[in-house]
Amino acid sequence: MTAPVNLRSTEDYRKMDAAHHWHPFTDTAELNAKGARVFTGAEGVWLRDSEGNRILDGMAGLWCVAVGYGRPEIVEAVTRQLQDLPYYNTFFQCTHPSAAEFAEAVTAVAPAHLNRVFFTNSGSESNDTVFRLARVYWDCMDKPSKKQFIARRNGYHGSTVVGASFGGMSAMHGQSDLPIEGIHHIGQPYWFGEGRETGMTPDEFGRARARELEDKIREVGADNIAAFIAEPIQGAGGVVIPPASYWPEISRICRKHDILLVADEVICGFGRTGNWFGSDTFGIEPDLMSIAKGMTSGYVPMGGVMISDRVADVVIAKAGEFYHGYTYSGHPAACAAGLANLRIMQEEKLVERVRDDIGPYMQAKWASLGDHPLIGEARMTGLIGAAELVRRKEPIERFPDAGTTGTLCRNLSVENGLVMRAVGDTMVIAPPLVISREECDELVARARKTFDRLADHLTREGAL
Ligand code: PMP
Question: Of all protein residues, whose CA lies closest to atom 13 belonging to ligand 1?
Answer without folding.
Answer: 123
